[in-house]
Every structure is written in structure tokens, then in C-alpha cells.
Write a structure and sequence with these properties.
This is Retrovirus-related Pol polyprotein from transposon RE2. The longest helix has 25 residues. The protein folds into 2 domains: 82 residues, no CATH class; 34 residues, no CATH class. The chain is mostly helical. A two-stranded parallel sheet has the order 1-2. The two termini are 30 Å apart. Helix 1 crosses helix 2 and helix 1 packs across helix 3.
């Protein structure tokens, strides 16, 4: 089963690093994924959802912080509420996987890129010009 959810919003917490910003975003995504998984199960649309929810991230530091939590000068200021991500991953509801920046389908939604790279990402998302539909 494939369910896609996304949103664009300003983080309410100021991040000191890219790793922290990605970690906070992954935490919010994991909470949303758990809610969505539970909601779909409550609707009895499917008997159960046994698969892990995959959260893709292109930041090695954020992934390492989830898999091997360490407190050091770059991560010690992350608010405790965002560490729920570790619990969600450890209990098996979600898994964080690495995706390269070049393969990250969400990049054109948040980063400037060349027209060639932008077109490649649009193709991956299945987006086409209206002229192609007519």
C-alpha cells in the first residue's frame, strides 16, 4: 500500500543546523505517518498495515541521530519533543532511509535547481504539461 502525504510549512522552532532542521522535519513526518496508519486501520479499509512506513532523508547527520543517538554540540539543543522520532523508529512503526539529493523527489519543491534536473524530478513525480494530456 502506498500513501503519500505532504505539506509545506515554516518550522516553529529555529534550527541551528541543517541536520537539526531535517531531524525536526522527519520527526513531524513520523508523527503524521503513525497517525495516518492508525486512522486507516480504524476505518477498516484494510485489515492491517504491517509494512514499515519509510521516511526518506538526504541528510546523513539526521539519519545517524535517529539510528545512533548521541548528544554532542550540534544536537544537544534539539527539543525533547522531537526525539519522539527515535521511539517511533525503535518500536518499528517507521524507518528512515537515505536518499541521495539527486534522487530526492521533494527537492524541486524546496530548492533551486537547473532546468534539466527540474524536468527529471517532474518526470519522477509523474507531472506533465497540460499539452501532453490533450
Amino acid at each position: 500500500m502506498v500513501v503519500v502525504a505532504w505539506k509545506s510549512s515554516k518550522q516553529d522552532t529555529t534550527a541551528d543546523s541543517t541536520m537539526e532542521a531535517e531531524y525536526i522535519a522527519a520527526s513531524e513526518a513520523a508523527k503524521e505517518a503513525v497517525w495516518m496508519k492508525n486512522y486507516i486501520q480504524e476505518l477498516s479499509v484494510v485489515p492491517s498495515i504491517a509494512e514499515l512506513v519509510l521516511i526518506f532523508c538526504d541528510n546523513n547527520g539526521a539519519i545517524a541521530q535517529v539510528k545512533e543517538p548521541r548528544s554532542h554540540h550540534r544536537s544537544k539543543h534539539i527539543l525533547r519533543r522531537y526525539h519522539l522520532l527515535r521511539e517511533i523508529v525503535s518500536r518499528g512503526d517507521c524507518r528512515m532511509d537515505r536518499v541521495s539529493s539527486a534522487e530526492n523527489t521533494a527537492n524541486p519543491l524546496s530548492k533551486p535547481m537547473s532546468q534539466i534536473a527540474h524536468t527529471q524530478h517532474l518526470d519522477k513525480m509523474g507531472l506533465r504539461s497540460m499539452g501532453d494530456w490533450l
